[in-house]
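Whiteboard transcription, Tuesday session. T.W. wrote the structure tokens on the left side:
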């Protein structure tokens, strides 16, 4: 039975959420100059976006997570 990396990650997270790394919350600007995120007085940036950063085989790897079950499992896993 062969698993893709994403599927293997999901299977591991179902068993026991233990994660290394850190979780970062980001608010970003977009490429549209007329968008409210570029307002000089009161910018309304887009987000939050959650970035899970960790070391994989000696290199920095990251994964963007949306609010939901995967994000909560990573939060619990980092706490463990």
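and on the right, the sequence the group agreed on:
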């Amino acid at each position: 039975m062969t698993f893709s990396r994403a599927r293997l990650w999901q299977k591991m997270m179902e068993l026991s959420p233990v994660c290394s790394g850190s979780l970062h919350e980001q608010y970003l600007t977009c490429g549209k100059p007329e968008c409210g995120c570029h307002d000089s007085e009161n910018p309304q940036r887009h987000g939050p976006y959650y970035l899970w950063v960790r070391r994989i085989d000696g290199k920095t790897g990251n994964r963007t997570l949306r609010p939901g079950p995967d994000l909560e499992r990573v939060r619990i896993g980092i706490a463990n």
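Someone added at the bottom: The two ends are 29 Å apart (CA to CA).
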